[in-house]
Known about the structure:
This protein is mainly alpha-helical. Helices cover 82% and strands 0% of the residues. It contains six helices and no strands. It has helices spanning 5-23, 29-33, 36-65, 67-73, 76-87, 94-117. Helix 3 (36-65) packs antiparallel against helix 4 (67-73), helix 4 (67-73) packs antiparallel against helix 6 and helix 5 (76-87) runs antiparallel to helix 6 (94-117). The chain is flat and about 45 Å long. The chain starts with a helix and ends with a helix.
Amino acid sequence: MKLPPLALATWQTGIAVITLSVLIDFEGITNVATNTQAVWGTVLGLGVLGTGAAYLIYYFIIESLGSVRAAGATYIAPIVAVIIGVIVGENITILEIIALILILGGVLLVQTGRRASV
């Protein structure tokens, strides 16, 4: 449809806000709303950087590289999560290493398979 990434991110986030406002229980929200740091952390950290920037970058990647290659980027999150876990002191087992190798292998297969078929 050739819609700009900003329009796609805005519509997707806006519809999510409407849906969640109907489904969420707002009982504990006052604890966050009364703490200025929590409010700013939520708005800036989760809203602007975590969700807003991520959507813009994701739709830009879709526009630039195509949907198959862009979908491969979503599988990098578990790898980053394990690396951050190790940095903060969590133990990593052979099972996590095998899982990371399988994830990277799958992404690599999708990316090289896509290039070979184009």
